[in-house]
Each structure stands twice: as structure tokens, then as C-alpha cells.
Amino acid sequence: MNFQFTEEQKMIQQAARDYAQRELIHDVIERDEKAIYPTEHIRNLSELGFLGMMVDPKYDGGGMDTVSYVLAMEEFSKVDSSIGVIVSVNNSLVCYGLEKYGTEDQKEKYLKPLARGEVTGAFLLSEPGAGSDATSQQTKAVDMGDHYLLNGVKNWITNGNTASTYLVIAQTHPDLGHRGINALIVDRHAEGVSIGPHENKMGMRSSDTHSVQFTDVKVPKENRIGEDGFGFKFAMKTLEGGRIGIASQALGLAAGAYELSCKYAKERKTFGKEIIKHQAIAFKLSDMATEIEAGRFLCLKAAWLKDQGLPYGIASAMAKQYCADMAMRVTTEAVQVHGGYGYVKEYHVERLMRDAKLTQIYEGTSEIQKIVISRAIQTGDI
Amino acid sequence: MRVLVCISNVPDTTTKIRFNAEATKFDDTGVQWVINPWDELALTRAVELKEDASSPVNEVVIVSVGLAVVEPTLRKGLAIGADKAVRIDLEPNDAYQTAVQLAEYIKNEEFGFIVCGIESGDYNDASVGGMLAEILDYTSVSSVSFVSFEGDKPIFQRDVADGKEQVEVTGTAVLIVQKGFARVPKIPNMRGIMTARSKPLEVIEASSCEPLVEFVSYKMPPQKGGVKMLNSAQELIDCLVNEAKII
Q1: What does the DSSP 8-state code read for residue B182?
Q2: Domain boundary among A229, A253, A281
Q3: Are residues A370 and A288 in the same domain?
Q4: CA-CA distance, A260 to B159, in Å (whole number)?
Q5: CB A11 to CB B75 under 8 A?
Q6: What one-character DSSP code corresponds to residue A127?
Q7: CATH classification at residue A115
Q8: How close is the nearest chain B Cα to the Cα of A365, in Å?
């Protein structure tokens, strides 16, 4: 067993840390408050190669491994988890899905601009009536011979308004249930695509979340990913990797809140001494540090399995569930360590606490992760 | 035009400084090493000049005096955009030994100019740049904030009191630079990080040179006193009279 990162992994971690601590920190409070999409930061991160960092260089990506991705996601999310989710969706859902399952023509046309960061992508699975129960897809992709006719509504779409390339999950053969579902590449500017209003969220407010409606949108047949009926499997397989991204985002939220709490606890004095010297606070920080380290190992283990080409679905579910729930606990305690200051925006931890809540909900709720894990226990896979 | 940037490998600025039991040596256990911040700015500007199509700079070389522990720092320099790295295989003891080793390497090479950060973040001697120019009999130009070109001829802009000074130098110049030469250090991109491992990193033998300095012992600076917030001029006067006893 080797706990040592490679020089490249350390460089990526440092690059992400430098960008987050030098650049993201300056406007993160304002972007959260006014729900401003971080256009300039996403452009800069594209130039640095973070938007397609795991894509093979032959498709214009960074060629980095999943461990590096975990390290970068943690650093971004320590400061700004909205950046974290934008980077995560583009990398682990859209780019990964296209690279792993797309045709060469699809990679040439859609993956390359995404990997270069010239455009961003979105993954459209959730619907008003199909969240955790993803098999209940109501969006229809009717086979019209040389194209599909797409109709329906997708909900809670990260990058919904800013993305150029959509990966849309839709039902083609309702009688076949989830085996009748397809995944289609859809141009956001195609006729019949309309974007709903910006969602006014509790947290992750700088990310761009919308509903998207499709009305008689013609999607060429060559834009289907995989064989007819592969869409549900495509979504589930892609989400396995997506969970590593969101687990790392939750890890970063927790680590950021912990670092701020340590700094504050060493400066703030009550009853004649720094509050870190009061056991009530010291034990909180001790629990935070231990839980964050445990979460980090779960993320890195899942990433390592993926990099080795080994099954990682259970590991990513464990990492996602543990880190999301841990981030909620840690950020809540971070607000408590800060007392009244933790409840105002200048001290950052209240934002991290609001942001943490979403990690328990999206890309599979904590409860869904427990279903994945417990099924594996029942089948003897773990 | 080839440009050389001298790189010092220093502990990260947040490092907790410790010494060995005898307090005769810096304890580097667990230390995170980084490019000296002033050298990183120098490298950033050199790479920007190379990337500027209107500049004659077409190659950036970095050099460091140090053992193998320096190599990750040099690789980061390559990731930032240097084309080639050179490591002179010696753990230097002082600025003189470092400058002599650098001079031995430089005298056999041809560079348009050489850039040194004003000081290193570990010992802060601010000596190597000046010594290097003296040993090589090159002109040293300090406080350089900008480089422009007239054809292939570099023009150095210096920050001086109440203004800027334009300097032309006969022969090769050693620039001594500080914050201002570049705005912020360049963050390496993915392509840079990926290609860094395949760029050349040459290790050359050190020449014979004894240091001039011997470190006898180290001592931590005294702890800074806390800040006391005062609410009135009277409180200030009372403190100056009764506590500081300077009135």
C-alpha cells in the first residue's frame, strides 16, 4: 500500500489550491448572495485544463487520473463548491460518459470542445416525477426513423442555461421499462429547447440550475449513445463516477469549514484563553479532523479503483454517502465553533453549511447510496 | 534568445520551523518544498516573454543548486513553462557556494539575460544575484520591473524613487527582481504538468568550492507580544507610563 501522491498529483492539487485561494475567494460571497454564475472563473479553469482534466489527450483533455481529480475537487470546494459542481458535472458525467460510451464521431464533434473547456455540458436525468426513481422517465424520445422526436421536461439541471451540450435520458420504448430508455446528445440551441427560470436555491447558489423543456426537438439518430435501450445503464454507470466527484466536493466543503474553524479557534478568546483550549471546542475539531480524513480515504479508494479499471460502484456510493453526511455534520459544527460569527456571511461557514445540504440530495441521495450499498451486502458483493 | 532563471528550493512559507536537537541544523522532516516565491515570479515573467510572439525570447532554462530533493521543484518549473532544467548536484551551504556553482555552469552557456529573485524565502540573504554577476563579471541590474526589446536588444526598466529608469546593458545582464516583475505566479495548466515529466532535466556535477559561512547555531526569534486594544487616549498614556515605561 502506498499513501504517497505522485509529483503530477501534487502539482494538480497545488494548482487547484492556488487558484481557489488566490482567485475564487475574492468574489465567492458576492456570487453566492446574488446567485451569479462564475463565467470568468470557468473560462480561467478551462484554460488551465480543469474542465476536461481526465479526458485522454487525444481528445484534447488533460489525461490526468481520478485521484488527481479528487484532489482538485477538494481544493476548489474548500472555497467554492459551486465551482466544484460545475467542474464535476463537466468532467465526470458529460466528458466521462462521452469518452467511455460515445462513438469516434461523437467524441470528435462533442467531446473535444468540452475537454478543451470551450463549451460546458449538462446531464439531464431528473424529472419532476423522476428523481431517485430514475426508471420512471416521462420524457419521450420517439423513434422517427432517421431521428428521434424529443418531448418532456427535465428538472434541477446543473449548467442548464450555460451548457451547450446536453446528455438527455429519455424513454423510447415504454413497454420495455428501463430497458427502453436512451441517452441522446442534444444541442442546447436546437429548435424546441426552452430553458426554465433560474432556480433560487438554498446553497450552491453560484451554479446555474434550471429546468429544461423539450418540445418536438429533432435529435439525429447518430446522437444516440450506445445501442437502442442503453440509456438507463449509461446513466447508472456514468453516475457511479459522478459520485466520486460529489463525494470529493463534500469532502472539500468539510475540509474548508474545518480549516476556517481551526484558524478561528486559535484566535478567538473566551474566559481568558483561545477557544481551541476549551475541551468543548477541541473535541469538536478532533472529530472533524478524523471524519474528514476517513472521508478522504473513501474518496481516494474509489478513485484508485476507477484508475485501476476495477469495479468502483460500491466504493463510490460509500464515499458519496459518508462524505455528504459528514460534510453536513462538520459544516454545522463549524458554524457552532464560530458562534454568532458563523451565522453571518463574512465568515464563510454558513455558506458551506447551506452548500453541504445539497450533497446529501443530488447525484443520488444518501438514502439511495444506502440502497446501493445494502444491495451489495445482500448479494454478497461486499 | 535563451533566458536563464535561477531557482531556489525553499520550504513552503507556512512551514513550522524546527531545528535538530543541537540547534545546529534546520530539521526538514515533513517539509513541503516550493519554488522560492521571488524566483517563481521571475520564471512567470520569463515564460510570458517566451509566449509573447513579439519578443525574441524563445527558450527558458531553469537552474538550481541542490540534491535530488530539488527535482520536484524543477519539474514544477518545467510545468509552468520552462523548456529545460539543470540541477547542479550539491547541497549549498551559503550564497557564495551557490553563486560559484551557478557561475561555473553559466560561463559555458549563452543567455540573453539571467534572472534571479531578489532573495530566497529561507535564509533571505539577498546575495546570490549580486555575487553571481560579480564572479562572471556581468552587469547586475536590480529592482527590474519590466523587460522590453528593441529588436533583439533587451531594455530593462528599473523602479527608482519617484519614477522608472530605462537601462541598456553591454553584454549579458543578471537581473535581480522582486514583486512587480510579474503580477502573480503562473499556475501550471494540465498540458504543462503532463509535459513536464518528458522535458529534459540535466544533472551536472558540482565544481570544487568551499563555503565561506559556517552555521554555528540557530535560535528561534522571541515570541511576539499580543495586541492590546485600547479605548481612549488616557488608556494609551497610562500604558506608556506604567507598562512600557517610556514616558
Answers
A1: S
A2: A229
A3: yes
A4: 38
A5: yes
A6: B
A7: 1.10.540.10
A8: 32
Tens-digit pLDDT string for chain B (247 aa): 999 999 999 999 888 889 999 998 889 888 889 999 999 999 999 999 999 999 999 999 999 999 999 999 999 999 999 999 999 999 999 999 999 999 999 999 999 999 999 988 888 888 899 999 999 999 999 999 999 999 899 999 998 888 999 999 999 999 999 888 998 999 999 999 999 999 999 999 999 999 999 889 999 888 877 788 888 999 999 999 998 888 8
Domain-embedded: residue A200: yes
Return the active site residues of A.
Answer: 363
What is the number of domains present in chain A? 3
Strand A165-171 and strand B173-177: the pairing is unpaired
Closest CA relative to residue A74, chosen from A317, A329, A323, A315: A323
pTM of the full predicted structure?
A: 0.91
Interface contact A12-B190, CB threshold 8 A? yes
Q: Which residue in the set A8, A47, A61 is minimally distant from B193, CB to CB?
A: A8
Which residue matches cell numbers 485522454? A56
For residue B191, list chain A residues with Cβ-Cβ distance below 8 A. Answer: 49, 57, 62
* Length, in residues, of chain A: 382
- Examine residue B247 and state whether it is found in any structural domain, yes or no: no
Q: Which candidate from B185, B187, B190 shows the least CB-CB separation from A64?
A: B190
Q: How many residues does chain B have?
A: 247
**Alpha carbon B2 to chain centroid, angstroms:** 19
Residue A105, domain extent? 7-120
